[in-house]
């Protein structure tokens, strides 16, 4: 269903309202257009109010028998990630071609670059989340995609003991986005794919056993 709406999103010739960087180019053409307050937007049978990133109402524009809609507002209504690359003056919708490592900006007490902990099955991952604390415990950390990405590809390995009820949630609304009942040491490095479009922050949590460790390579886990 999302792919269908994504196709509609492209077909509408959307006007990009991504910030002042969009207007910095040299190919701007002045036109006379009209804000059209009569146009209503309905997604999956439900009326929605389009807003910009600051929560302010935005209105469709009518010009030359074509309706132009603000790309950020529509993409968020459809659950399609959107971001703007100022360097190339490019609006990115959906998954990006290149992944962005979650190591960038990662902040947690179990974040380490110590080779003693960053090496798994003979490979040094350089930066990892490594929780080997004692006792049965909750092992958790935060991620901040900031609504800029469509997918999260998170790698994780259980060392020594199982990791149970591993979950990825919307940190602001507590919606569970993905649950894995158990990750076993013999499973090796597991890749978990999660749709994160429209989410600003994520809470990642699993139940670790005494004597076991939670290993998450930050350099090979990424957003797209």
UniProtKB/TrEMBL annotation:
InterPro entries in the cross-refs: Cu_amine_oxidase-like_N (IPR012854), Mao_N_sf (IPR036582)
Annotated signal sequence range: 1-24
UniProt entry tagged with the keyword Signal: yes
Statement: the UniProt record of this protein carries the keyword Signal: yes
Keywords: Signal
Residue span(s) of domain Copper amine oxidase-like N-terminal: 15-92
Coiled-coil residues: none
Protein name per its UniProtKB record: Predicted prefoldin, molecular chaperone implicated in de novo protein folding
Organism (species): Paenibacillus barengoltzii J12
